[in-house]
Amino acid sequence: MRRLLGRPELGSVVGAAAVLVFFSVVADSFLRASSLSTVLYAASTIGIMAVPVALLMIGGEFDLSAGVLVTTSALVSSMFSYQMTANVWVGIGVSLAVTLAVGVFNGVMLVRTKLPSFIVTLGTFLMLTGLNLGLTKLISGTVSTKGIGDMEGFASARVLFASRLDLGGGIGVRVTVVWWLALVALATWVLLRTRAGNWIFAVGGDQEAARAVGVPVARTKVALYTAVAFCAWVSGQHLLMSFDVVQSGEGVGNEFLYIIAAVIGGCLMTGGYGSAIGSAVGALIFGMTSKGIVYAQWDQDWFKFFLGAMLLLATLLNAWVRKKAEATA
Q1: What's the rounded Cα separation, in Å, for the pair 211 and 218?
Q2: Are 204 and 59 in contact (CB under 8 A)?
Q3: pTM across the whole model
Q4: Is residue 258 within 8 Å of residue 247, measured between CB atoms?
Q5: CA 154, 156, 161, 162: dihedral to nearest 10 degrees?
Q6: Most buried of the four, 5, 61, 83, 304, by CB within 10 Å?
Q7: CA 19 to CA 8: how far, in whole Å?
Q8: How many beta carbons lie within 10 A of that of residue 155, not counting itself?
Q9: Using CA atoms, how far apart are residues 240 and 136, in angstroms rounded to an integer?
């Protein structure tokens, strides 16, 4: 029981069960296989980014540029491929390099300037928002990219980033669910079974104490921001391969959804505590809520209300669980 109470994701699991039961009662179609597939897809689009954001929060930092970085990744792939008439995979490779460079920039700026991550990544957020819109209009003449669906390499890239896996009986899941679960498994292994995982918890708990015992604080934080950038690249390619074109203004505000999923999953705003599995459960709650409202035929305007309520309730429940765990330790 003490080990169970000590798990960061316990509160979110209880919350997820409550949301599942609630929408199962109020929406008759919620438990259909096709509906659950849609829920998983909605959860995966948030969950892919919630995983590295959770690790970053465990390390004591934030990234407010994560949402627009997804759009930047997609824009670079699309515009480079179209303007250079290159194979789509060339654009994807260039996008990976650019996106990782932004992640490294965030990390290096943070450790060199000693500024709060809120300020550093807010600056990056504003710069990327302007670049996304300005360069897209300059190159394409509009606020969206040109279609690249007929270009060489698009079909194979779509298989990797935006395909649908048939499970039989007309039931299928999107490949983003596979990406999401693989990232959760990898992040959980890193946190619980590697030296790097110990470094992440140590840096988030007390970075000065961590530095005193030999933890490479700067390298760990740069690596965490790079991980966020990599997942932004994956999400960006999914966005592009799913819709063929990209709107330059997309992604603004999504960074808060990633943070909400991580917090609902048990991550503390102060760092040093949380789990990748918790972020996955938080993303699942997001998916169930967003689609449950649709299946219940309610007004979508209520979605943000439910999301805010879940954030507050989950945070309170997580705090209560931590106190119980500390009291029984």
Answers
A1: 9
A2: yes
A3: 0.93
A4: no
A5: 80
A6: 61
A7: 19
A8: 13
A9: 14
